[in-house]
Amino acid sequence: MSSSFEPWRDCSVLFDVSSSRLQVDKGEEIVDSLDNVEDTKGNNGVKGRLIVTNLRLIWQCDPKPSVNLSIGYGTISKIFVKMVKSKLHGGNTKALVLTCKTKKSSYSFIFTYMIASSPRLFNSVQMILRAYDSTRQYRDLRVRSSTLITNETLCVLPHEEVYDKLDGVWNLSGDKGELGVLIVTNVRCVWFSSLNSKFNVSIPYYVTSSVTTKRSKFGAALVVKTTHSTNSLSIGFRVDPIERLEKTCRRIVRLHKMYHTTPIYGVDFERVFEEEEDMNALQAVPFQDDDIEITHEQQSDILAAYVEGKLRGEGHGSDALPVYNEELGLAVEPLQNGFTLCSLIEINHE
User: Fold this and answer.
1) Distance (Å, rounded) from C-alpha 10 to C-alpha 72?
2) For residues 110 and 80, what is the distance between their CA atoms, to the nearest angstrom?
């Protein structure tokens, strides 16, 4: 049985995490490192460093390293450039704007590069986002994909190697099961129906939590369980005879373990260095902690600062930035002058 794994770097938006969670891990590579980047929405007037990796953006405040952001590319729904007011620039300047969505919230972030004449911030982020978005097959669970199988043959991805192809494998997702072909590679497991190749499933090891054999109403079965981010699905396959089933399970477990030792995320890129010191900066990017302790109230204010909407102080109305309300324990729209929370929710019985 393979060990469990839960991806988070590319599918989460995190605030003020420890330095250990900012460190790049296996398979994560630094694409670019930019100093003098302002988090204009949440920390206007404060310089920080922006790290562009193949999975996420990391911003860390220079004066207070415990103030930081980790923005996974899988959460970004929109990216554009607009004019914003920056305290560090002392006026209006072009900035990079990101709109992000998680299962629970929507956020927007604004980053301003202090070297106004340089397009490096925009170019680096846009380049890596295109590479990430075009390689989702390496990381996303796919069902009934029209581009997965062509002429009964798997469309092999770059860096992907096929280790086994098994005919006569039953997919047990239906009441009666469906006969098809199971393909095992160094990146994923793929199954498709013998009658209709568009009835298929692709299960990357990136979203595979465990692989084991279990008893089912169809007999002994190979069970691939996906991670929480893909709803913890259990996908069963019947492989006969039992010796073939056990051999296949051992092979997938071994490949799954190898994958997480040296992950293949598929996000290829080319680094473009403006100066020689840029190359040296990417060799080791230290992340620091400080002694500031963030309370529950502070954390709520932090989240409110990035909730999609206008900047604090730009007035009231439907676009005003929510603020944390201790009575409700929620981020709410700022109250207009002369109003209180009680006056808004009180029911007049007269």
Assistant:
1) 4
2) 10
Q: Across residues 202-228, what is the average pLDDT?
A: 95
Per the CB < 8 A criterion, the answer to whether 193 and 180 are in contact is yes
pTM over 0.85: no
CA-to-CA dists, residue 324 to 40, 66, 81, 296, angstroms? 20, 21, 29, 11
Model confidence pLDDT, tens digit, residues 8-30? 999 999 999 999 999 999 999 99
| E strands, the chain, in order | 13-15, 30-39, 47-53, 56-61, 68-72, 76-86, 91-101, 106-113, 142-143, 149-150, 153-154, 162-171, 178-185, 188-193, 200-204, 208-216, 219-226, 234-238, 323-325, 330-332
Q: Which residue has tokens 């007049």?
A: 348
The tokens 């069970």 sit on which residue?
Answer: 223
Residue recorded with tokens 């793929």: 190
The first and second tokens of residue 248, run together, are 């296949």
Largest CA distance in the chain: 79
Place of tokens 């997919």: 171
Per the CB < 8 A criterion, the answer to whether 197 and 152 are in contact is yes
Element (H, E) at 200: strand 200-204
Q: Which residues pair with 61 in a beta bridge?
A: 48
15 dihedral zone (left: phi>0; alpha: psi -120 to 50; beta): beta
- Tell me the pLDDT band of 261, cut-offs 50, 70 and 90: very high
User: What is the Cα–Cα distance from 90 to 37, expressed in whole angstroms?
Assistant: 14
Residue 134 — very low, low, confident or very high, per pLDDT cuts 50/70/90? very high
Q: Is the pLDDT of residue 178 over 70?
A: yes
The distance of Cα 327 from the centroid of its chain, to the nearest Å, equals 33
Cα distance between residue 112 and residue 94, in whole Å? 7
Find the mean pLDDT for residues 40-59: 96
Mean pLDDT score across all residues of the chain:
84
Instruction: Determine phi and psi for 73, rounding to 5 degrees.
Output: -65, -25
The reported pLDDT for the residue numbered 321 is: 52
Given a contact cutoff of 8 angstroms between Cβ atoms, the answer to whether 266 and 137 are in contact is yes
d(CA 334, CA 279): 46
Q: What is the pLDDT of residues 271-284, one digit of tens each?
A: 755 544 444 444 44
Phi, psi of 100 (to 5 degrees): -125, 145
